[in-house]
Amino acid sequence: MGVVPLKDILDPAFDARYGVPAINIFNDLTMEAVLAGAVDARSPVILQTSVKTVRSIGSRVLFDMWQSLTRGIEVPVTLHLDHCPDRDVVTECLKAGWNSVLFDASELPVEENQRQTIEVVAEARSYGAQVEGEIESITGVEDDHGSDDVSEQQSLETALAFIDATGIDVFAPSIGNAHGSYKAAPVLDVDRVTQIVEARSIPIALHGGSGLSAEQFADLIARGCAKVNISTALKETYMQSSLAFLKQAEQNNKWDPPSLFKHTRGEIIAMVTELTEQFGSAGKAGN
After folding, report:
1. This prediction's pTM
2. Where does Zn(2+) 1 bind (predicted)?
3. Is 229 annotated as ligand-binding?
4. Which of 64, 82, 86, 149 is catalytic?
């Protein structure tokens, strides 16, 4: 219980075929509310920070917040750096105490991506941390990172060779998923998840989770997507719930920031508990 390595959360989820929410926070309120939701649901949770959030708040301040809010927490939690192409930021976060990183060199040729990922894995191991890797860009822009262009999908053989050579702990394949809100129902290459898992038995990270159907989530988790990334859904919950409250405050001419924060926090906690129920991680933290 408490802060644990990423593997301690994902390995049981992968073995039992449930999904763990990996939620991108962006301030102290969202960090606290996501953790509170996990506690309420008795669920493990992966708390993620984007490079944009690290740069805007600062790694030291973020990690101090993390330490304060997880002190004595009774569910398994871990801190993950999401989609980071910058080796300096990877090093900064590993030194600060992050438990895992996604080194995203997907815009580089696979050979160079592999070479650098091997180095990042070695660096992470020196801090007792884990690494998520990917060889194809996930379509869509998120927190100023990525592109709306659809990247070329690599062969299964290339993906397996990358996993073998790098020693990564989690793999994030492109399967037709996308960051942000889907403009149309996505057509997913779910068989690719099955092929990778059957060949290498490695936990899969599902990116672009916000907006997938319950059936798609269930199918992908059953195939081995143990880490389910959620970012857009939290941003929308945070901003839309705040907007609704502020409209009511304007109508009533009553301006009380703590009431706004309490309202938004409650909406986020409800979102997190619903995700844990949907992904099957609720109650998995034990008693």
Report:
1. 0.91
2. 83, 179, 207
3. yes
4. 82
